[in-house]
Amino acid sequence: MTVFDSPEFDRHEQVVFCADADSGLRAIIAIHNTNLGPGLGGCRMWPYADDAEALQDALRLARGMTYKSAITGLPYGGGKSVIIGDPKTQKTEALLRAMGRFIDTLGGRYQTAEDVGTTVTDMDILRQETEFAHGLSGASGDPSPATAYGVFMGLRAALYFKHERDDLRGLTVAVQGLGNVGKRLCRYLADAGARLIVADIREDAMQAAIRDFGATPVSPDAIHKIEADVFAPCALGAILNDATIPDLRAGIVAGSANNQLAEPRHGEALRERGVLYAPDYVINAGGLIDIHVGEDGGDQEAVLKRTAEIYNTTLTILERAAREERATDTIADRMAEERFRGQRKARAA
Length: 349
Prior knowledge:
CATH superfamily of the largest domain: NAD(P)-binding Rossmann-like Domain
Radius of gyration: 19 Å
CATH topology of the largest domain: Rossmann fold
CATH class of the largest domain: Alpha Beta
Number of helices: 12
Mean pLDDT: 94
Number of domains: 2
Number of strands: 12
């Protein structure tokens, strides 16, 4: 299968395959669209089953970043990079430096930050090889707190739209995934009075949620079936699919995971079931905002103030989707495309 044959290929501008024999680096950089600015997106490290799976992930994630930047009103396009390997056993300074050098050859068309499997410290190492690594320890740092806050605001907007209330006292939220974002989202939810049901593949993360938030644990393969007011997917993508959607017992889906819909048609499937979906790239944009505002001289207060705008953006999308009787992800995509494709037309003129 070639890049152009991939079902995830969507007029991507550039795909770069990176290999460094000395460090063992094997990576893919995908740039989807740069009409609004350089392709910005995290550097993920994951033990993909094969190269095809890594390519699929890079293409899909890069496209998502284009839409995320556009819907959030930030001056970036969409890009993503994936390193093929286990971050726990195969990540080395030499490998990260090699990745930094490959990123640097693109001259700023692609710029990166941390993602699944990478850290702020890793970005510090990449920065030694390229100026196009962000989210550094001395600058904006870990974007997870802002991401969690944005998801919390988007979740509240969905609650307001569906129930005309955005407080969480007495409501139940099922959180799938207790990583950097998921656990911080749990803190916001618990502080707001929500009852938490949680699932994670790591037992220590589950025990911490029980201790810190009074959460009720369930198995990862059962969390989407739990009766709850909100289901918050905060692990990996494609959780909303033909197998899981019929089992959903929550009226709202609002979480931080990227690419929650396994296929575009699943947004409509949710609408037909009466499940309100807060599009993932809309409400998980806090990390991108953190990098933009934080490295532009803004402090944490400024980051959170800008991130809070996700509430109104989400509400606008949900209201428009209801008026037009369309899936919420379709409306979000259309609004984003109006911005980044419209910009291309303006440049051409």
